[in-house]
């Protein structure tokens, strides 16, 4: 395993966000597309949702058509209109490991494939995640994920402006709301707001046109850079091959309480917004009203 940055004082353990889920989905797609499920072992049935039949009865002998991401979830599309949706929660991890590798504690599901020496394992010590087996119309709904908002990487400026319009809540609170914009969490909200030079307590509806444009560009740029770095490893998150992400070494504010701002050298501060610890530079981030 590679080195990973320590979690700064006074912050909650991070949850996998869009870049981490995207990294997992891309790596699993490259490794599993075309593979045929041969067997399934379930250690904890209470983390399974959706189709009431035994998981093996539904997915055995089905071919993996692809692996994608929606919001913070990883979706494994199987032939016959069946989809497995993995919600990672706080500590969920999907790994491709040799079949003979020791099974770690809290590994809840193991899926093997024909003519392969490895298997897909889902491990979740805290059990805030889960696995949904969907088929038919349910799988279509799973693709749409109607309960979450649009994807930030493809969000148009006009749609973003409509989301912000007349909102009195803070911009940080709004960005965390998965029903409005999908996939953003504490890490990348803080990083994008810093990149855009916007104070996280600024009322969302108070952002003028140029500020909103600057923020959306910062969100997309931050997410794409994090994806290129395979996400941020701060505690539980690992790629499916077991390696760390590296974007944590590029964080400008998140987890850097008391450290000098990389731009102005003033110490990074923290606030609590929507129940979440928020990191910011009091000099570089303006606009609180």
Blueprint of the fold:
Blueprint lengths: L17 H15 L4 E6 L5 E3 L4 H5 L4 E7 L2 E6 L3 E6 L5 E6 L8 E7 L4 E6 L6 E6 L1 H8 L12 H8 L6 H6 L9 H11 L12 H20 L40 E5 L2 E5 L9
Parallel strand pairs: 2-9
Antiparallel strand pairs: 1-7, 3-4, 4-5, 5-9, 6-8, 7-8, 10-11
Helix pairs in contact: 1-7, 4-7, 6-7
Describe the structure.
With 289 residues, this protein is of the alpha+beta class. The chain folds into two domains: 18-144, Alpha-Beta Barrel (N-terminal domain of MutM-like DNA repair proteins), CATH 3.20.190.10; 152-182 and 184-280, Helicase, Ruva Protein, domain 3 (Orthogonal Bundle). It is built from seven helices and eleven strands. Strands 2-9-5-4-3 form a five-stranded mixed beta sheet, with helices on both faces. The longest helix is centred in the last third of the chain and has 20 residues, at 209-228. The protein is elongated and about 55 Å long. The model is unreliable at 1-12 (pLDDT under 50).
Task: Please sum up the structure shown.
The chain has 7 helices and 11 strands. The protein is an alpha+beta fold.
Looking at this protein, list some descriptive labels.
elongated; 2 domains; five-stranded mixed sheet; N-terminal domain of MutM-like DNA repair proteins; 289 residues; 7 helices; 25% helix
């Amino acid at each position: 395993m590679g080195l990973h940055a320590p979690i700064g004082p006074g912050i909650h353990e991070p949850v996998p966000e869009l870049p981490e889920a995207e990294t997992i989905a891309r790596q699993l797609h490259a490794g599993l597309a075309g593979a045929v499920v041969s067997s399934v072992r379930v250690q904890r049935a209470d983390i399974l949702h959706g189709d009431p039949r035994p998981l093996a009865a539904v997915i055995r002998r089905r071919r993996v058509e692809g692996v994608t991401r929606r919001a913070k979830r990883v979706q494994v599309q199987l032939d016959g209109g069946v989809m497995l949706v993995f919600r990672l929660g706080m500590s969920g991890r999907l790994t491709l490991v040799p079949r003979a590798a020791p099974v770690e504690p809290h590994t809840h599901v193991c899926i093997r494939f024909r003519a392969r020496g490895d298997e897909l394992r889902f491990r979740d010590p805290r059990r805030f995640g889960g696995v949904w087996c969907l088929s038919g119309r349910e799988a279509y709904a799973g693709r749409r994920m109607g309960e979450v908002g649009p994807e930030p990487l493809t969000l148009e400026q006009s749609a973003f402006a409509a989301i912000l319009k007349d909102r009195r809540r803070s911009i940080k609170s709004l960005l965390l709301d998965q029903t409005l914009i999908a996939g953003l969490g504490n890490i990348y909200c803080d990083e994008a707001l810093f990149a855009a030079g916007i104070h996280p307590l600024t009322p969302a509806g108070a952002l003028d046109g140029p500020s909103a444009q600057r923020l959306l560009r910062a969100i997309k740029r931050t997410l794409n850079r994090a994806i290129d770095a395979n996400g941020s490893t701060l505690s539980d998150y690992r790629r499916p091959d077991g390696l760390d992400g590296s974007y944590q070494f590029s964080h400008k504010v998140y987890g850097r309480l008391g450290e000098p701002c990389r731009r102005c050298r003033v110490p990074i501060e923290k606030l609590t917004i929507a129940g979440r610890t928020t990191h910011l530079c009091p000099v570089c981030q303006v606009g609180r009203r």
